[in-house]
Amino acid sequence: MSGFYGVEESRIREYARLLARTGVNVQPGQEIVINCPAEHFLFARLVAEEVYAAGAREVILRWNDSGISRLTYLHAAEEALASVPEWRGESYNYYARRGAGQISIVGSDPEAYKGVDPERMQLLEKAMDQAAAEHYRRIMASENPWTIGAVPQRKWAAKVFPGLSEEAAMTRLWEMILKAVRIDGGDAVQAWENHNRFLKEKCRMLDAYGFAKLHYKNGIGTDFTVGLVKGHIWEGGSETAGTGAVFEANMPTEEIFTMPDCRMAEGTLVSAMPLCCRGNLICDFSLTFHEGRVVDYSAGEGLETLRAVLETDEGSRRLGEVAIVPYDSPISQMKTLFYNTLFDENASCHFALGRCYPTTIAGGAGMSKEELSAAGGNHSSNHVDFMVGTADLCITGIRENGEEIRIFENGNWAE
Ligand code: ZN
Ligand code: ZN
Description:
There is one protein chain. By secondary structure, this protein is an alpha+beta fold. The protein has helices at residues 9-23, 41-53, 66-75, 78-82, 86-97, 118-131, 133-140, 154-160, 166-180, 188-209, 303-310, 330-333, 341-344, 369-374; strands at residues 31-37, 58-64, 101-106, 146-150, 213-217, 223-228, 239-240, 246-247, 256-258, 260-270, 275-277, 280-290, 293-301, 319-324, 350-354, 383-387, 394-398, 404-409, 412-413. The strands form four sheets. Strands 5, 6, 10, 11, 12, 13, 17, 18 and 19 form a nine-stranded antiparallel β-sheet that branches. α1 packs across α2 (41-53) and α5 runs parallel beside α7. The protein is globular, with a radius of gyration of 20 Å. Residues 321, 352, 383, 385 line the site of one zinc ion.
């Protein structure tokens, strides 16, 4: 019996190989940490096999389970949530310092934490962020290679395809994931190389404009201007780790992104699709900014979760990422709401509230926290992407001298 809902194991294996090779790009002798929900152990095994086949020194498994996490959030003593033992943080920091690569496999119930007190979730998140600070810093700065890939899960598949049987929904979600990561019968590695070339051309085009600001407008109420930091760099597709290895942080990825000036954002952004965040859905929401900070917000559903996100810390009300995705991107073309940010953010222009990527400003990887702040970079223990791209979105770039260039017309690249 196949554990993959009728999808040939050879194709699933090709996906595992893609994560090991194109994704984290395992180097001989390297340690690779695999983060994986326990229920996806069959897929984790395939990934581990491919990681060893690529010459890894050791595969380290870090299992997780949203069911157990839910129980922890509901019932653990508050002190236990607020303080992560040093050894646990060190288990992350230790491998990060040794240059380990990280493969994160995701795929769980989008509403796993519905009804959980967001403040209790936040306690643990903050404590973990501090305990494993070195690990998170090295990942955000791309010093260590990392990649994220998704595997279907029953409740997730049922949410995406409510009209199908469990079996059919799982098969369908597998097919869509494989299509999204370009495993469709051709040479996937070559397809990724071509894709990277396209993304990087767009990055160099926007770098050459060197916009000071971007203005967004559409018919659902978005009318918003965001400043970009001086010396910002547009990134997309593959990145180069501190070790020199080229890796792909997200599979799939269709976005190009850069660093907003977290002190310069004015106007209102209206959500284009629901956001699955911390195991809860936030729907029909809007955020209004003044001087870079969210000063007003609303949500049709999930207001409590949105409030908790915004109130995490000082930086959680400011932007850390500006990302552009054409409305006709292959994932957007699937016309499917995935209830999973890895997919939905690659179907729509988006922003992220919270910490910035230091790699998106010239010299950023070598900057101290203070230097990054002085340049307009944002700090937070959060990084929450939310989607604003619609079929009628227009984006105008504004240069330092006031010159305006339309870069996005009706949801897609203007040129
Ligand atoms: Zn993004
Ligand atoms: Zn992001």
